[in-house]
TrEMBL record:
GO terms under biological process: glutamyl-tRNA aminoacylation
Domain Glutamyl/glutaminyl-tRNA synthetase class Ib catalytic: residue ranges: 3-305
Single GO molecular function: ATP binding
Designated name of the protein: Glutamate--tRNA ligase
Primary location group: cytoplasm
EC code(s) of this entry: 6.1.1.17
Function, as annotated: Catalyzes the attachment of glutamate to tRNA(Glu) in a two-step reaction: glutamate is first activated by ATP to form Glu-AMP and then transferred to the acceptor end of tRNA(Glu).
């Protein structure tokens, strides 16, 4: 079997849409799982709407998602001469023709067809004209589409889709100024890039029937087609701005880890049994076109958060810290100091559980990110009344020589609570306030282990002796 080559071909008219991100992911998974190539082409032929900023935003989005491509990024616009060359080849073969009809003539044809209740698909009077009779006037180049029979798209997702040829017009290949149209450019680029599998949104399904005419006329092999359903919001309507964030970069700024996003997007419209949580390696191994459903997938933020929490929990500490720092940069927050970085690495074991996003992770990490002296927030300050401060003051001597291991610390604190005629639960509130300045924190023992003996005692002493306003 020849090497699998897939491609992602966005138009640079805005950010990387979440639907585009999933299309890119499906192409990436299919190629990577088969030792093939994943190529990137920017379809920038619409010069009025294409911008370098949008291209940058798309590249940033793919980079964040970890979808690496092979080779250089291809610009469709830069290949316009090659597209025109193919149109002239088709003219020379008699598979295309010059059409001199003006816009006014085309509109008049359509009005007459409407009045007679006939098809408004334009039929050029020049389709079979002798080139010797061509006027000296502007013309477009049209493809000669078969007028009888049907075009059958054998689609890996949609099955066999039949379109009657009398429903297809003679598609324009070159405009009157000689520039190629998008539909021609796509086919030429896919052929020249050696694309074997075209995996794209099912809004392109009808385009496939028209593009197949160019493949046939040029004698080129067809790629395998897989047209995937669009993504809908939770309300069942096509995903749009009213459903909230749409761009991949927005999800990065909301603090979702890329691995969780990849996992969730892979599950949007594709399944492998009942598996919900899986790694990249499993996704590459399992992903196939036969697992893609025909119905639109529904975007569910709760499911995304749940998967992201699972990925944070199993992530490797240094990698998670790297991505956390990228999140801080993307949201223009202050970078971590070296002391904070080291503290985060020590604390990861107790931060990763139950954090679904990076803001939640940072929130849990306040005890290690905050600088002494710790200033308790309003809720935590209530736990530091005179009685509690007295208890903390009595506690610190017991910690001076305690073995700094979790079991030993638990034993020391439970014994101390008993001596005070109370339970450890009563100590926890004031200790959280003293160590983190918060009432909701990781376990007191975990914080003590991360902070170490010296810093723990320093914070407890300060809280015990602080003048509470």
């Amino acid at each position: 079997m020849s090497e699998v080559v897939t491609r992602f071909a966005p138009s640079p008219t805005g950010y990387l849409h979440i639907g585009g991100a999933r299309t890119a992911l499906f192409n990436w998974l299919y190629a990577r799982g088969r030792g093939g190539k994943f190529l990137l082409r920017i379809e920038d032929t619409d010069r009025a709407r294409s911008t370098p900023e949008a291209t940058e935003a798309i590249l940033r989005g793919l980079d964040w998602l970890g979808l690496d491509h092979d080779g250089e990024v291809i610009s469709q616009f830069d290949r316009a001469d090659r597209h025109a060359e193919v149109a002239h080849d088709l003219l020379a073969k008699g598979a295309a023709y010059k059409c001199f009809s003006t816009q006014e003539e085309i509109e008049a044809f359509r009005e007459a067809a409407r009045a007679e209740g006939k098809s408004t698909l334009f039929q050029s009077p020049r389709r079979d004209a002798d080139p010797a009779t061509h006027p000296d006037a502007p013309f477009v180049v049209r493809l000669k589409t078969a007028q009888e029979g049907a075009t059958v798209i054998e689609d890996e997702v949609q099955g066999s889709v039949t379109i009657r040829n009398d429903q297809l017009d003679d598609m324009v290949l070159l405009r009157s100024d000689g520039t190629p149209v998008y539909m021609l450019a796509v086919v030429v680029d896919d052929h020249d890039m050696g694309v074997t599998h075209v995996i794209r949104g099912d809004d392109h399904l009808n385009n496939a029937a028209r593009q197949m005419g160019i493949y046939a006329a040029m004698g080129w092999p067809l790629p395998v087609y897989a047209h995937i359903p669009l993504i809908h919001g939770a309300d069942g309507k096509k995903l749009s701005k009213r459903h909230g964030a749409l761009g991949a970069d927005e999800y990065q700024k909301m603090g979702y880890p890329a691995a969780g996003m990849r996992n969730y997007l892979a599950r949007l419209g594709w399944s492998h049994g009942d598996d919900e949580f899986f790694t990249d390696a499993q996704a590459k191994d399992w992903f196939g076109l036969d697992g893609i459903g025909k119905s639109p997938a529904r975007f569910d933020l709760k499911k995304l958060e749940n998967l992201c929490g699972q990925h944070i929990a199993v992530a490797e500490d240094a990698g998670l810290l790297r991505e956390l720092e990228e999140f801080l940069a993307a949201t223009a927050q202050n970078p971590l100091t070296e002391t904070q970085r080291q503290g985060m690495l020590r604390a990861m074991f107790c931060l990763k559980e139950r954090a679904k996003t990076f803001p939640e992770l940072l929130d849990k990490a306040q005890f290690v990110l905050t600088e002494s002296p710790v200033v308790p927030d309003e809720k935590a300050a209530k736990a530091l009344d005179a009685v509690s401060r007295g208890i903390l003051s009595a506690l610190t001597p017991h910690l001076q020589n305690a073995s700094w291991a979790r079991d030993d610390l638990e034993a020391v604190l439970n014994r101390f609570a008993e001596d005070q005629g109370t339970k450890f639960g009563k100590l926890a509130g004031p200790m959280r306030a003293a160590l983190a300045g918060r009432s909701a924190t990781p376990s007191v023992f975990d914080m003590m282990l991360v902070l170490g003996r010296e810093e723990t005692i320093r914070r407890l002493d300060r809280a015990a002796t602080a003048e509470m306003g």
